[in-house]
Structures are given as structure tokens and as C-alpha cells.
Amino acid sequence: MKLIIFDLDQTLVDSISVHDKATNELFKRRFGVDARLTEIDFAGKSLKENFIELARLKGIPETQIVQNAIKLLKNYEHIFDKIIPQDFSKYILPGVKKLLQELSRTENLVVLYTGDSPGIVKTVLRATGLEKYFKFSLHGTETKTRADMVRLAIEKAQRLTGKTFKDKDVVIIGDSIRDIDAGKQFNALTIAVATGFHTVEELSKNKPDYLFRNMKDFRQILNIVG
What we know:
Blueprint: E1 3-6, H1 16-31, H2 47-57, H3 62-66, H4 69-83, H5 96-103, E2 109-114, H6 118-128, E3 137-139, H7 146-161, E4 170-174, H8 177-184, E5 189-193, H9 200-205, E6 210-212, H10 218-225
Parallel strand pairs: 1-2, 1-4, 2-3, 4-5, 5-6
């Protein structure tokens, strides 16, 4: 049995257009400025981290984000839920659903980690119909770093199964250099997919164990995972 940890945005689903619109609406309402997620390197970061970085870019005091983080996230969830299409299944990236279906037939424990908040994850999984494939999820609101999320995932998986997950028994699949870096801290098997903000060249420099342009060849990924 292996612990397989998937990132969400731009790894499984292409939801950045919705995040972009939600971010802009939030910053217009609260700060009176245009601000889009795609103006910064958002990949592999929490929503709070991205809000802080955007605030700096727009000349908004960081304290306005930090002191109002909970309220901002609640407002963001409300906006996101309002604008996301009810059927978001067409935004699932190529090969993803088939890969998840095949993994569900194995003994492996498949989980999710993401910089999104629980409300955003619930909305996306509901709109895509992917929620049934994940045993549990971890969110950017729970930890300070992506590596901390991996640590929590391992601890939770071990409590659930009574098994020990270490080194290549842990598989990280994501689209950002931060997914690769987090996996390396645990000597995990890292699989990078260039379906997000970071290019093939950028991902390659961080030396994942495997690098794919997308997950269309899902059977090759299944063979790697074992």
C-alpha cells in the first residue's frame, strides 16, 4: 500500500480562471483595486500567502490581510461558490479521471492536499464529482508550509491504516516546484505534471523523479506508482 497525495488546482482541475475572477472580485470589494491571482506565482501556495503577495504588489498593507484573514477567506469562499459553474466536470484535466478510477481499484490510499481552504475544496470536488476518490484532504488553512501538509497526511494515513508510510511509499503528484520540494523533504516519490503555472523547464530544474506534460498517459503513471 502506498500513500498517494494529489495537489488540486492545475493538477487535477483547471480552476484558475474561477480563482482569478474570485480574487479580483474580493480585492475590488475590500480594497478597491483590480488584482488577479495570475499576476503572481501562486502555484503551490496557500490562499492566504497569495493574498499577502498580491497585497504587496498592489500597495496594500500586509496587516490588512493578516488581521482579517478569516473573514477574507470566508468572503472568498462565498464568491467562488457563486461563480463556479454547477457542472465543472469539463474542467477536469486530461487523464485525471481515468487515473483516479484505476487507483480506486487498488489498495493504495489516495488523498488530496491543497493551498485552498476547506470550503473551496468542497465546492470544487462537488462540482467535478471527484470527491469519491479521496480518503481525506488537507488544506492551506491548516499549516504554514506544503511540507507540513505532507507530514500531516502521513500521520493521518498511518492512524487510519495502522501502516507506516515513508520514503517512496509516499507519492506526491503536483504541478508546481513546491510540490517537488515538499516531497523531497520526505524522500517521497515525486511526479510533476506541467499542466500549471510552472513550465517543463522550471519543473525539470527541481529534479522530480518523473515529469509529464499532462496525465493523458495515465497508465504510465499507474505503472510508476505500482
